[in-house]
Amino acid sequence: MGHIKEPKGIDFVVDPTPLSAEDRKKISEIIAYYKATGKKMPLKTQKKKKVSA
């Protein structure tokens, strides 16, 4: 991990955002998939609806 030099007049604050139970579950699924396959989890594609004008 490197050191970040703060510019004059700027304070960097690192504060993690709390995760919801749903976010934690999704992250756990992604990590488990990667450990099992060694590959990234594929993104779920959404079908786009055609809009008639």
**Main β-sheet description:** none
Helix count equals 1
Average pLDDT: 82
Share in β-strands: under 5%
Q: How many β-strand runs?
A: 0
Structural class: mainly alpha
Summarize the topology.
Blueprint: H1 21-37
Tell me what the structure shows:
The structure is a single chain. It is extended and about 50 Å long. The protein contains 1 helix and no strands. By secondary structure, the protein is mainly alpha-helical. It has one helix at residues 21-37.
Q: Can you describe this structure in just a few lines?
A:
The protein is mainly alpha-helical. The N and C termini lie far apart (53 Å).
List the main descriptive attributes of the protein structure presented here.
about 30% helix; mainly alpha; single chain; 1 helix; about 55 residues
